[in-house]
Amino acid sequence: MGTQPRPPVYILLGPPGAGKGTQARLLEERFGLLQLSTGDLLRAAVAAGTAAGRAAGAVMEAGGLVSDAIVIAVLKDRMAAPDTAVGVILDGFPRTAGQAGALDRLLADEGRTVAAAIALEVDDAAMVERIAGRFTCAGCGEGYHDSMKAPAVPGVCDRCGGTAFRRRADDRAETVAARLAAYHAETAPLIAHYERQGMLARVDAMGSIAEIAAALARIVAEPRARGEDPPVAASAEGSAGQGQGGTEGNPREKANG
Ligand code: AMP
Fold it and tell me: In the chain, which stretches have pLDDT less than 50?
């Protein structure tokens, strides 16, 4: 009680194709948080030809995990920027036990902890189909899907009106299998890590984008009821603190200080 406001850090966990990017962007818009995707940061490093990008490019193309040293350095650098002061949603980080430990230490240095780690639960088989159909606007990065979320006007971005779209090179079926394998070997165990810390919430992510977004919004709004420092909701829909439907587990339920 009565402590300095601390920007919350939310983690989205889930295999490739679970909708982490889509949902992180919705939370960003609704709650004024900042989405930080290590995949986006690494793709930018590859495009810029930095040392990190040169080291990461081939691993990413093969669907493997970039080394902890590189990813942690990239993430720490980005977390130090002033625009993270509104609070962040980590999309695609941490992905290994080493990264989770580094994040815990980074936050602990500032007297902070993760506000909630949210596991998006999906069927693996459906992920391959989801990934194969997805594409983004080249201008603003808005995500689309051939069958699940096509632009309202074909060929025109709903968000910015752009007409150029791109598909990721690592969304090919062969690479997706490698990415799913890396998820199960390295990242899925983090669910237990955050469960032990009492910070895990689970969301059934096989529903519609709107249903999943509503479940996530309830979780993000929830710390308000715990006397923490939640972001301020931009919309009253799905009001704060209700915590029902679509979720099990209660972030911080067991956490006590
Ligand atoms: P994403 O956009 O999150 O699907 O990430 C694309 C690719 O970037 C992944 O398949 C990995 O090769 C790499 N990557 C992104 N985030 C991480 C991370 N936290 N640890 C290791 N590799 C990562």
Answer: 1-2, 224-227, 235-257
DSSP secondary-structure letter at 183? I
**Of 2, 11, 220, which is closest to residue 106 (Cα–Cα)?**
11
Residue 160 has phi, psi (to 5 degrees) of -120, -5
CA angle 248, 106, 74 (to 5 degrees): 100
- Ligand 1 pocket test: pick from 93, 95, 96, 172 the residue with the most ligand atoms within 8 Å of its Cβ: 95
Rounded-to-integer distance, Cα 189 and Cα 177, Å? 18
E strand or H helix at 211, and its extent? Answer: helix 209-221
Here the tokens at position 156 are: 């025109």
Cβ contact 165:143 at 8 Å: no
Is 202 annotated as catalytic? no
pTM confidence score: 0.81
CB neighbourhood size of 91 (10 A): 24
Instruction: Give the count of beta carbons closer than 10 Å to the beta carbon of residue 111.
Output: 9
Tell me, using a 6 A CB cutoff, whether residue 72 lines ligand 1. no
Token pair, residue 134, equals: 């997805």
Tokens for 99, please give them.
């990264």
240 CA from centroid of ligand 1 (Å):
32
Q: Residue 16: left if φ>0, alpha if ψ -120 to 50, beta else—which one?
A: beta
Annotated catalytic residue 254: no
Q: Any catalytic annotation for residue 95?
A: yes
